[in-house]
Structure formats: structure tokens, C-alpha cells
Write a structure and sequence with these properties.
The chain is α/β, with parallel strands linked by helices. It is about 55% helix and about 10% strand. It folds into three domains: about 50 residues; about 180 residues, 3-Layer(aba) Sandwich (Rossmann fold), CATH 3.40.50; about 120 residues, no CATH class. The chain is built from 18 helices and six strands. Helix 9 runs antiparallel to helix 10, helix 12 packs across helix 13 and helix 12 packs parallel to helix 14. The N and C termini lie far apart (about 75 Å). The structure holds adenosine-5'-triphosphate (ATP) and magnesium ion (MG). Magnesium ion (MG) binds next to helix 6. InterPro entries: AAA+_ATPase, ATPase_AAA_core, ATPase_AAA_CS, MT-severing_AAA_ATPase, P-loop_NTPase. This is ATP-binding protein. It holds the Pfam family AAA. Belongs to the AAA ATPase family.
Length: about 350
């Protein structure tokens, strides 16, 4: 009733989960949809959170993130670290009571598109806490001295909130050194971040993310007791991703999922998502599903961070051969099955492999 945006959102989240548990999926979705609207009705009531801003540019230094609507697919190890972290964060009060409270921080590192930002908001959703996203590069001001003030402003803002503070792109701090050719400025920024982290009350959960962990100052590295490297997805995670993003968890597509998962080693979650969404767009707009070989080629021609989107174009002979060889070598598929997948005779499939020196 006092238009407390954060609390309304939290209670809404609990209601949505209760509805989902009571198998009222439609009700749960409706509540989630309202919550995702960034508090429009509350803003209309005159309540808006005052976010800290850069004095010169007037741009906000913190953004309230959204809880994700899609699942996060994690390797077993990352899943375990995340569960442990969540358990600790849920029990901060108990731990503090017993005198073993500590700053709860988790550092996520890994290649682009492996789900670091997604995992941070997923953790916030599981903790039913708002997530405040800070991009350190936006805090680095052109005016000397402003940067430290910005950093302090953000930590002061967080101190009064029971939220998750997400420090995204943490390596930006290290870049100060290159941009300004000035070690003194870098030291000041690192020191203010350290002071900020140390000054936060235990109730604030901190998650950091970086693509370049080796650029991080060791003192910052130490402030995050939990660390998780998000690797490129393994076979079982890739299966889950294709199943979800491309086939909307349709059981009838398990064979195709298995093939795609095996030939897409080296791609990130973001790549799999991009290829899948492109294929689904084609299916909707052309009124017909893409042929499977075209999809396989797209996965094979993609490189991490640089997906090659599928289209309906006829495949050239070298492309067909490339697919056949990959099915044989990477997915261990029999020649007759390769022929079936490619829509050619067994003899033809055999010839593709023989030309590549792969026939048994
Ligand atoms: N492990 C994953 N599980 C589910 N979806 C994923 C996963 N990894 C990536 N994605 C999809 O790719 C999108 C981009 O991932 P995200 O932004 O979280 O990557 P990131 O690691 O933060 O990348 P960057 O280093 O570029 O910031 C996600 O929103 C999600 O849709
Ligand atoms: Mg990110």
C-alpha cells in the first residue's frame, strides 16, 4: 500500500511460485507477466526508485535487472557451486546468529555467451531478491575523481537494500590502466571497489562476472569466496539447450537433439539459442520447418561467439560432404543412417565418406 516496488515484486514472485506449485500455470504466468512490466502501475502511483547517477552524464550507474523467464542450463559442477551459494545466501540470518556470517560473494567467469549474466539473475530469482546490475565501465568517468565517487554512490545505495548486487564486466576496472596510462587512477578505483565491498552489510549478496579473470586484481578476486567458471556447454547441457530452444521440449525430437548435440561441440549457449531462434523464425515465416541437413550445416559452420544462421538454400556438394563426414566422425553415425538423415542413398553417403578417406 505504500507503493514499495521491491516488496510488491517480492510478494508477487512468491504468489507466482505458489500458483505454479498449485498447478495453476496460467495464473503463475499472468502474475509473472505483470511483474516483468518494470513496475509500470507503481510508477504511475508516483513511486520511483531514485537510482545513483553519474554527475556529469546523468546516466544511472545501477539498473534493476529482471528475473529470467528461461531456465539456465548448467554443467554439474557449476550447478553444485550455485546450489551451495544459494543455500548459504538463504540462511544469512542463521549464519550471522551463530557468528559465522561472512560477505557472500560469487564470481562467475567464462567465455562470452556462456550464461554468466543469466545465472546471476537466476540466482536472484531463486533468492526472491531484486537484482541491481552495475556495469563497471559506466562508472568509469572521464573526470578524475568522479569514478571513485560513482563507486561509493553505488555501494551506499546497495547498503540499504536486501538485494543482489551484480557487478557485470568486472575486467573494466583493469582497463583503466590501458585507457588512462595512469596507474594511480587504477589503484584508486580498485581501492574504492574493495572498500565498497567490505562496507556492505552481510545481507547484500554480491555476484561478479568477467570474461578475463586474469585481469582482475587479486585482492578483488579474494573478496569472492565462491567462484564458478562457466565452461562451454558439455554434451548433456547442449542436448538440454537444443531440446529447449529449438524443439520446445517436444519428446518426439530426441533423435535430432542427440545428433545436434554431438556435432555442436565448441558452441556456447548463446550460439545454440541464436541458431535455434533463427530456425524457428524461418519455420514460422516460411510456413515450413527447415530441412534437418541445413540445420546441421549451420551448427557445423558456426564458431563460438559467431553463429552461422541457418537458411533454406540448397546445399552444395562440398557442404553435403562436410555434413556427412561430421555425422560419421563426431556423432559416430552409421552410413545407412547418414543417408537417411541427408535424404540420399546409402551408396551416396558412402561416397561422401570415401572421398574424405573415411569409409570403413
Ligand atoms: N547456460 C545457459 N543456459 C541457458 N541459456 C543460456 C546459457 N548460456 C547462454 N544462454 C543464452 O544466451 C544468452 C546470453 O547469455 P549471457 O548474456 O548470460 O552470457 P554471458 O556469459 O553473460 O556473456 P557476456 O560475457 O557476453 O556478457 C542468455 O540470455 C541465454 O538465453
Ligand atoms: Mg554478460
Amino acid at each position: 500500500m505504500s507503493a514499495d516496488y521491491t516488496r510488491v515484486r517480492r510478494v508477487g514472485g512468491v504468489l507466482a511460485r505458489m500458483s505454479a506449485e498449485a498447478r495453476d500455470d496460467e495464473g503463475a504466468r499472468a502474475i509473472q507477466a505483470v511483474l516483468r512490466k518494470r513496475g509500470v502501475p507503481l510508477q504511475a502511483s508516483g513511486f520511483a526508485e531514485a537510482l545513483p547517477r553519474d554527475a556529469t552524464s546523468r546516466l544511472p550507474l545501477v539498473e534493476e535487472g529482471q528475473w529470467p523467464a528461461t531456465p539456465a542450463f548448467l554443467t554439474e559442477e557449476v550447478g553444485r557451486t550455485t546450489s551451495r551459494f544459494i543455500e548459504d545466501a538463504k540462511n544469512i540470518a542463521l549464519l550471522a546468529e551463530k557468528g559465522v556470517s561472512a560477505r557472500l560473494g560469487m564470481l562467475l567467469h567464462g567465455a562470452p555467451g556462456t550464461g554468466k549474466s543469466l545465472l546471476a539473475s537466476y540466482v536472484a530469482a531463486l533468492l526472491e531478491r531484486p537484482i541491481y546490475v552495475v556495469r563497471l565501465d559506466s562508472m568509469i568517468s572521464s573526470r578524475l575523481g568522479e569514478t571513485a565517487k560513482n563507486v561509493r554512490g553505488v555501494f551506499e545505495f546497495m547498503a540499504s537494500r536486501e538485494g543482489v548486487l551484480f557487478l557485470d564486466e568486472m575486467d573494466a576496472i583493469a582497463k583503466v590502466r590501458d585507457d588512462k596510462h595512469e596507474l594511480g587512477e587504477l589503484k584508486r578505483v580498485v581501492n574504492t571497489v574493495l572498500q565498497g565491498l567490505d562496507s556492505l552489510p552481510d545481507s547484500v549478496v554480491v555476484i561478479g562476472a568477467t570474461n578475463h579473470p586474469h585481469l582482475l586484481d587479486p585482492a578483488i578476486w579474494r573478496r569472492f569466496p565462491y567462484k564458478a567458471e562457466l565452461p562451454l556447454p558439455d554434451l548433456s547441457v547442449r542436448s538440454a539447450m537444443w531440446r529447449h530452444f529449438l524443439y520446445a521440449n517436444d519428446d518426439a525430437r530426441e533423435k535430432d537433439v542427440a545428433v545436434l548435440a554431438r556435432i555442436s561441440e565448441g558452441l556456447s549457449g548463446a550460439d545454440v539459442e541464436n541458431i535455434s531462434l533463427a530456425a524457428r523464425r524461418r519455420e514460422i515465416l516460411d510456413g515450413d520447418a527447415l530441412p534437418f541437413p541445413q540445420l546441421l550445416l549451420s551448427a557445423l559452420a558456426s564458431r563460438a561467439g559467431n553463429p552461422s544462421l541457418p537458411d533454406r538454400r540448397d546445399l552444395s556438394a562440398p557442404e553435403r560432404q562436410k555434413i556427412a563426414v561430421a555425422l560419421h566422425k563426431k556423432a559416430n553415425i552409421k552410413v545407412s543412417e547418414i543417408g537417411r538423415i541427408m535424404g540420399v542413398s546409402r551408396q551416396m553417403a558412402h561416397r561422401y565418406l570415401k572421398e574424405d578417406g573415411n569409409a570403413e
